[in-house]
Amino acid sequence: MDRRSFLKTSALGSAAIAAGTLMPTSCSSGKGGVKDTSKVKLNISFQEGIAPGESLAEKLDFMEKLGVTGFEPGGRGLSGRVAEIREALSGRNIKVSAICAGFDGFILADDAAIKESFDTSMREIVAAAGELGSTGVIMVPAFNGQEPCKPHTLQTRDYLCEELHKLGEFAKEHGTTVILEPLNRRECFYMRLVADAAAICRDADSEGVKAMGDFWHMQEETSDYGAFMSAGSQYLQHVHIASRGRRIMPGEDGEKDNYVEGFRALKELGYDKFVSFECGCEGDHETAVKNAVKLLREQWALA
Asked: Tens digits of per-residue pLDDT, 18-76?
């Protein structure tokens, strides 16, 4: 190709790129996106320690008054709480969202006894989650401090996908899923990006294996919008939220607590699952929770 042809081709390419940047944002959502995002609702969920109250009933009363429609209990001892949680939610406009971990061991354990402990306890939680109509059980393949752990190699990734396939099929049988949670490199070097989790979901090849994003853990993402879009509606099953500096209530870290770009992705994806609070609190508990819910709804509207 001579210089003149090269420049002509380059100019055409540049024009195409420039035109692409002027396309409406609704076109960028890709397959499965929705055009009218105004109809996509924000479904807020609380982990059990978020709402003030001495008893579960008092916590749920507080949540109902705020219009919170999801409840995320911990997985530890969940099988023994199924009847209690069902009774507590009876007649309320609140559903069980995800189940937060609670299993023993870990899936990438190099010690057979630790792996067996994971298999047994995780399946018990998954079965209970299915009874409660939960969207899934959250899991991390391995935290940095969990030893002995299989090495971070391609062979280990293949092994993980095979094990997740079996676990995902078990979850499907119980009407629920397992949800992979990416963290950050200080906590988990193996899976740090939402795209990492989504790729593992794809390769696990089971509809029972899903992914999630956590606004606080998403410190290594270059874009909140891009992170959620990388999972897409096919794999994105749950979202955690906290303030973006100290992992306390949204809004307690001031201007850092901006979720608009992430919310825009969720709206364009037609995301109909839950955005669940996983955080501490620095100020007055009741006031901070109310302010946080108000902030999220305002930013969802802006998105």
From this structure: 444 433 343 344 445 676 888 999 999 999 999 999 999 999 999 999 999 999 999 99
pTM of the complete model: 0.88
Closest to 65 (Cα-Cα) out of 44, 84, 40: 44
- Which tens digit of pLDDT belongs to each residue from 66-104? 999 999 999 999 999 999 999 999 999 999 999 999 999
